[in-house]
Amino acid sequence: MTGTEEMIKDLTRRVEKLLAEYDPARTDRLEFLRARFDAGLAWVHFPEGLGGLGLPRELQAHVDRLLAKAGAPDNDPRRNGIGLGMAAPTILAYGTEEQKKRFLRPLWTGEEIWCQLFSEPGAGSDLAALATRAEWDGEYWVVNGQKVWTSGAHKAHWGILVARTDPEAPKHRGMTYFLCDMRDPGVEVRPLRQITGEAEFNEVFLTDVRIPDEHRLGERGQGWQVATATLMNERVAIGGGDIPREGGMIGVVADTWRRRPELRRPDLHARLMRLWVEAEVARLTGKRLRQKLAAGQPGPEGSASKLTFARLSQQLSGLEIELLGEEGLRYGDWTMKRPDIVVFTGKDAGYRYLRAKGNSIEGGTSEILRNIVAERVLGLPPEPRVDKNVPWKDLPR
Ligand SMILES: Cc1cc2nc3c(=O)[nH]c(=O)nc-3n(C[C@H](O)[C@H](O)[C@H](O)COP(=O)(O)OP(=O)(O)OC[C@H]3O[C@@H](n4cnc5c(N)ncnc54)[C@H](O)[C@@H]3O)c2cc1C
């Protein structure tokens, strides 16, 4: 038996044991999820004692399949996308043992939802320009500033936060990374509405928010390095999902094409075929990316995947509108909603078209991702940078 076969056999045994001890039909959902975490079957690639078994990441799919077949509840990863996709791998990489023990279990079960307090007015693509200050008063870090575009802040218990702790240092070196309790006094969350009418995100005002030093992630001044780990994971989380063939937007458009022959036109046929092939290439590239991930940290390839995802999403939603003609323009629901998750399927084509606009902005704009691919994958000369060794406080704003 090969090593992988043995690992699969062992995992099967562990799943059977969990199911025998916690019958999904009779066990409370959260109790089951907590037991699953404690059995190391939450994310098998995480270390033992932290919801995993230190196994290759690909083996998780086997566990998920067995549990789904047995009718076990899952933790619906879409409800805590920022927690699972970004906060968790960053806490695992930079957290102290106490932080990992405190935060990873309720994050994985979904008992604690996370948001990402990175972007600011004036610091989006140029994240290292951020101006939110965190000052040590001898007892606490006292945080003041404004964040923007904070998805899910209204339902989050915790936020990953980058703040400036040393204005005298050049911009990339004077930041520190924190875990911010969103229920603390001084955290004010206000909805921001999008082109779809929904408010998935918010502006967040931080006024004298007191963060204890135990909630600093990584060393003082190491914020940029920690934030980079989050951003690389973010791109994989957005663009590198494990989807079946014709999953996502291509599936929606192909389905309309099959069901509605009266809408077909030769020019649209050629475009659909091209996009179908591109979607399949993107899907298989995502598979390869996840295999590489199993062997280490995500690299710049995650940026390429996110870039492709955004381009395809916009081209396909545009094609769908053209295919449907007037029917596609019918979206007219502008009532303010606070959706729990972003779903493209099961909604109007007009909604998909409008929401897809944000895909090339969220998680890093396509222009920035092209720069990363140019510099770090293709090795092209970098853009000139004039602010590298200048103290942040002396930069023009
Ligand atoms: C749906 C959605 C959800 C979001 N959720 C979150 C969240 O939860 N938390 C969070 O912190 N942020 C979030 N964001 C913010 C997002 O990360 C930022 O909007 C993004 O990083 C771009 O920053 P900006 O909006 O300030 O644009 P700017 O940085 O002002 O950029 C404006 C334009 O200039 C281009 N540009 C800038 N610099 C360069 C350059 N050097 N070379 C070439 N072109 C350049 C950009 O690509 C862009 O087209 C979200 C955004 C969206 C749309």
Automatic annotation (TrEMBL):
<dbReference type="Pfam" id="PF02770">
    <property type="entry name" value="Acyl-CoA_dh_M"/>
</dbReference>
<dbReference type="InterPro" id="IPR052161">
    <property type="entry name" value="Mycobact_Acyl-CoA_DH"/>
</dbReference>
<protein>
    <submittedName>
        <fullName>Acyl-CoA dehydrogenase domain protein</fullName>
    </submittedName>
</protein>
<dbReference type="InterPro" id="IPR036250">
    <property type="entry name" value="AcylCo_DH-like_C"/>
</dbReference>
<feature type="domain" description="Acyl-CoA dehydrogenase/oxidase C-terminal">
    <location>
        <begin position="221"/>
        <end position="378"/>
    </location>
</feature>
<keyword id="KW-0274">FAD</keyword>
<feature type="domain" description="Acyl-CoA dehydrogenase/oxidase N-terminal">
    <location>
        <begin position="12"/>
        <end position="111"/>
    </location>
</feature>
<feature type="domain" description="Acyl-CoA oxidase/dehydrogenase middle">
    <location>
        <begin position="115"/>
        <end position="209"/>
    </location>
</feature>
<dbReference type="GO" id="GO:0050660">
    <property type="term" value="F:flavin adenine dinucleotide binding"/>
</dbReference>
<keyword id="KW-0285">Flavoprotein</keyword>
<dbReference type="Pfam" id="PF02771">
    <property type="entry name" value="Acyl-CoA_dh_N"/>
</dbReference>
<dbReference type="InterPro" id="IPR009075">
    <property type="entry name" value="AcylCo_DH/oxidase_C"/>
</dbReference>
<dbReference type="InterPro" id="IPR013786">
    <property type="entry name" value="AcylCoA_DH/ox_N"/>
</dbReference>
<keyword id="KW-0560">Oxidoreductase</keyword>
<dbReference type="InterPro" id="IPR037069">
    <property type="entry name" value="AcylCoA_DH/ox_N_sf"/>
</dbReference>
<dbReference type="GO" id="GO:0005886">
    <property type="term" value="C:plasma membrane"/>
</dbReference>
<dbReference type="InterPro" id="IPR006091">
    <property type="entry name" value="Acyl-CoA_Oxase/DH_mid-dom"/>
</dbReference>
<dbReference type="GO" id="GO:0016627">
    <property type="term" value="F:oxidoreductase activity, acting on the CH-CH group of donors"/>
</dbReference>
<dbReference type="InterPro" id="IPR009100">
    <property type="entry name" value="AcylCoA_DH/oxidase_NM_dom_sf"/>
</dbReference>
<dbReference type="InterPro" id="IPR046373">
    <property type="entry name" value="Acyl-CoA_Oxase/DH_mid-dom_sf"/>
</dbReference>
<comment type="similarity">
    <text>Belongs to the acyl-CoA dehydrogenase family.</text>
</comment>
<dbReference type="Pfam" id="PF00441">
    <property type="entry name" value="Acyl-CoA_dh_1"/>
</dbReference>
